[in-house]
Amino acid sequence: MKKVELRRVEQSEDVTIGVLTVDGEGVCWCLEEPWRENEPDVSCIPAGTYPLALEHSPSKGRMLWTIKDVQGRSYVRIHIGNSVDDTAGCVLPGELPVTKNERREVEFSARAFGKFLTAMGDGEATAQITVINVDGSKGEQAEGKPKPEPKKAAKAKDKKEEKTEAAEAEK
Questions:
Q1: pLDDT > 90: percent of the chain
Q2: CA 87 to CA 166: how far, in whole Å?
Q3: What is the 3-state secondary structure (H, E, C) of 82-144?
Q4: Contact between 4 and 22 (Cβ < 8 Å)
Q5: What is the pTM of this model?
Q6: Of 139, 110, 107, the residue nearest 16 (C-alpha)
Q7: How many CA atoms are closer than 13 Å to the CA of 23, on its beta-carbon side?
Q8: What are phi and psi of 168, to 5 degrees?
Q9: Contacting residues for 40 by C-beta, under 8 A, at least 6 apart
Q10: CB neighbours of 26 closer than 8 A, spacing ≥ 6?
């Protein structure tokens, strides 16, 4: 059985960038949605180990590797695309991560997808994928770290702390 690893090396509010390996050999970069609490179609999946199955995708009209048994999710596939606009919660292979118009993308997705399919081979229709966040977290935050606040809440908190510090300094 083929062992695939998706090692996420960059995670932001807008995108997740990772590296795909098959049986320990680097194959390509990949792009996913950012972590949004595992919400279907808008979030990357939680870190973990999942079965992979080669299945026909009616929407793409071809056989695609599907990440199975993701709690609360279905049809998480590895397919061609270049930006988060193309993901719908899936994994997009690419040859190179780039920044275009201030957005992170992957280039040459079709070529990278072909390399991934070649690395997976023709023999088996099942495999296993392990998704790893370099920071060790399951999604956006590592255990023990405070959950990032939305920007508006963080700014309000900063202003409140400034007022408190100013009041204490006057005493």
A1: 77
A2: 47
A3: CCHHHCCCCEEEECEEEEECCEEEEECHHHHHHHHHHHHCCCCCEEEEEEEECCCCCCCCCCC
A4: yes
A5: 0.79
A6: 139
A7: 8
A8: -70, -35
A9: 72, 73, 74, 89
A10: 19, 20
| Tokens representing residue 57 in the block | 């995708």
Q: In whole angstroms, what is the distance from residue 54 CA to residue 1 CA?
A: 13
Q: What is the per-residue pLDDT across 85-119, written as a single tens digit (0 to 9) for each?
A: 999 999 999 999 999 999 999 999 999 999 999 99
- How far is the C-alpha of 98 from the C-alpha of 127, rounded, in Å? 29
Dig out the tokens for 65 from the structure: 């590797």
* Phi-psi map region of 102: left, alpha, beta (phi>0 left; psi -120 to 50 alpha): left
Paired with 96 in beta bridges are 107
